[in-house]
UniProtKB/TrEMBL annotation:
This is ATP synthase subunit e, mitochondrial. Belongs to the ATPase e subunit family. The keyword Transport applies. It comes from Tripterygium wilfordii. It holds the Pfam family ATP-synt_E. It comes from the Eukaryota. Keywords: ATP synthesis, CF(0), Hydrogen ion transport, Ion transport, Membrane, Mitochondrion, Mitochondrion inner membrane, Transmembrane, Transmembrane helix, Transport. It is found in: Mitochondrion inner membrane. GO terms for cellular component: mitochondrial inner membrane; proton-transporting ATP synthase complex. The chain crosses the membrane at residues 12-32.
């Protein structure tokens, strides 16, 4: 007997879509976080440079 079609059952289309969307969400979240941290670091360096001058 085949298992009931659940959201993460084997190679069902829904499982594939769920995995892909979760993966792409992770990638987007990661790159946004990286950009945010880089911008934060840049503005911190600018503030430090202003304080030193």
């Amino acid at each position: 007997m085949a298992p009931p079609p659940g959201p993460y059952s084997g190679t069902s289309t829904l499982a594939l879509v769920a995995r892909v969307s979760a993966f792409s969400y992770g990638v987007v979240y990661g790159s946004l976080k990286l950009k945010y941290l880089q911008a934060k670091a840049k503005s911190q360096k600018k503030a430090e440079a202003k304080a030193h001058h």
